[in-house]
Write a structure and sequence with these properties.
With about 80 residues, the protein is an alpha+beta fold. It is built from 4 helices and 2 strands; from the N terminus they run E-E-H-H-H-H. About 50% of the residues lie in helices and about 25% in strands.
Length: about 80
Amino acid sequence: MKEHIKLAFPIKIDGHEYTNLSMRRPKVRDRLMIDRNDLHESESEIHYFSHLCEVSPDVIEELDWSDFVQLREKLQLFLASRPSA
């Protein structure tokens, strides 16, 4: 399952314009991969979102803060959601 996130402030990286990102549901191995790296907490979060959205960390770093907050909110929805019975 992927969640599409429309960017309020599109960005351009290496000639490619990003107007939205797609984030997939995280798995335990995604978090483990990030935790194994010796990165500052902010850098770790950037790499985590980069991995989940399948884009370069440069893309995440260029996001407007409000769009970055959207990524955090979508992640929280993934973490809180449960399959319906």
